[in-house]
Amino acid sequence: MRWRKLGNVFCAAGEHPWMLTHAANPVVEWRHGDVFRIYFSARDAQRRAHIGYVDIDLNAPQIILSLSDTPVIAPGETGLFDDSGTSMGCLVHHNGKRHLYYLGWNLGVTVPWRNSIGLAVSEGADSPFVKVSRAPIIDRSETDPFSISYPWVLIDGDRWRMWYGSNLSWGTGTRQEEMSHLFKYAESDDGHTWRRDGAIALPFKDETEYAMSKPTVVRDADLYRMWYSYRGNAYRIGYAESPDGVSWTRRDELAGIGPSESGWDVDTVCYPCVFDHGGERFMLYNGSRYGDTGFGLAVLEK
């Protein structure tokens, strides 16, 4: 497996007060023909994430066809689980509705943050997304007592399946490198109420790793395939395979993409989103500084 990079696509540069910097956590939605909407997380002057989008044609991805004027999802009011930011998680289409799962940021005192997963639903292709609740749909619990991160949701038969991040520990809470953050798994009958057993979906490779983030899962005929971010010193994109979506084997050597020798993704690649179109497999991903340099596009070589 080897990905051919097609270049940087978009990076926020002050287009709106809520879109001053970053284009992190890109997630794709097919619109028509070869045109796709790419949702991403931008930041305002207070560094709070807001979800926006650009529309692109895969035949000329650097040409922005349209850009959102207002946030798709914005931070909640003071004191709510998402008052410090809303970051893009994933998008699921079901029965004519669109389900947007997002990460709500809530800054902490003894630890840097306490995050939860929220849900917004759109009634149709051009209808706005509306938060289903001021509360998260997945919050801290005995199963996930510390903090939660980015979900990926896949409808598989009559099951809604989610892979998401969960802190096992903060350490002292003073250094990010002390935390232990891995992927877990959940199931649902309706996409709103989720069952969690706390089982770890993917282990660390060695003692140098301390975090995994932003899984993207594709089901092929013979395998479930997951791409994700993992880090020791800096984020890299990893790859894993599973026969059932529950038991995973890491095969990071097959990920097929890494930092470039120069440019916007020179030291980091992270936050992948993999999708198929026109007989090709594509990957959106971020480069340096957690999306501060924007997102790019790559295509899987055959």
From TrEMBL:
Gene3D superfamilies according to UniProt: Glycosyl hydrolase domain, family 43
InterPro entries the record matches: Glyco_hydro_beta-prop_sf
Superkingdom as given in the UniProt entry: Bacteria
Name of protein: Glycosyl hydrolase family 32 N-terminal domain-containing protein
SUPFAM superfamilies: Arabinanase/levansucrase/invertase (SSF75005)
Organism annotation: Paraburkholderia azotifigens
